[in-house]
Amino acid sequence: MSTPTDTPLTLFWSPGACSFVPHVALCETGLKHDLVLAKVGHMTKEFEAINPKRRVPVLIMGSEVITEMAAVLTAIATAAPDSHIFGKTPLEKIRVYEWLNYLSTTAHGQAIAEIWRTERFTNNPEIYPQLRAKGYETMREIFAHIESKFKAANITEFAVGNSYTAADGFLSVLYLWTARFTEVTIDIDNEYPVYAAYVKMMLQRTAFIEARRIHKL
């Protein structure tokens, strides 16, 4: 495998999906990359051959196919070590992974999936409303946890350390997703003001503006 800086990178993405997070990371690092659309719900046979799990994000790094959020972001960090997207110290790296694992599992894999991918949890459509309600309830718990953590650590600009990390992208997309909630309204700005102010500041960054333009988020 060639050295990180000269390895061709291709990100398979879907509009508004979690692939927004590594897209932001690529923009933040300035790494040259190609984007290939793999729309959720309309995956092609060609994409399935690349990733039989039929999920985004997928990062092609030279001859390597990398799947799963934390792995994809780690690959990007490896390709751009001077960008420090996993922090600048060993403890900061641990904290970034702490956020990514929590957001990937409890927030995205559980709550968001219960709301938007309810069929993954049951074959009985009659209980879809209960599952979606539980998803919204869990999202409120997640936002309350984020708000509490931010207040306790006096976080206003970056979730970890004093510069952008991969955790910032995931924390921000959760905020953006709430605008697409159809059954329950969660007023982030008023209910979780510290978190809301942090995201609004993050969304002013050039990388986020570029990724939002493409993802239409």
TrEMBL record:
Signal peptide range in chain numbering: none
Gene3D superfamilies per UniProt: 1.20.1050.10, Glutaredoxin (3.40.30.10)
Transmembrane residue ranges: none
Domain GST C-terminal: 89-217
A Pfam cross-reference name: GST_N_2
InterPro entries: Glutathione-S-Trfase_C-like, Glutathione-S-Trfase_C_sf, Glutathione_S-Trfase, Glutathione_S-Trfase_N, Thioredoxin-like_sf
Family statement drawn from the similarity comment of this UniProt entry: Belongs to the GST superfamily.
Protein name as annotated: GST C-terminal domain-containing protein
Species name: Trichoderma guizhouense
Lineage: Eukaryota, Fungi, Dikarya, Ascomycota, Pezizomycotina
